[in-house]
Structure to design on (57 residues):
């Protein structure tokens, strides 16, 4: 049996916050359009061990 799983994630959004040290500056996020946020897909396939059947016994 094979299990296939796919997950879609939106790329970074502008509303996300982050913690910084005192001497760090935040990176500026830029995007061409807020209406078209790119998506990324992760695909994972998991297969369990197969059992061989003994023939002739």
């Amino acid at each position: 049996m094979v299990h296939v799983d796919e997950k879609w994630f939106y790329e970074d959004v502008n509303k996300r916050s982050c913690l910084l040290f005192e001497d760090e500056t935040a990176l500026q996020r830029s995007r061409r359009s807020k209406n078209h946020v790119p998506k990324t897909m992760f695909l994972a396939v998991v297969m369990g061990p197969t059992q061989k059947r003994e023939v002739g016994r």
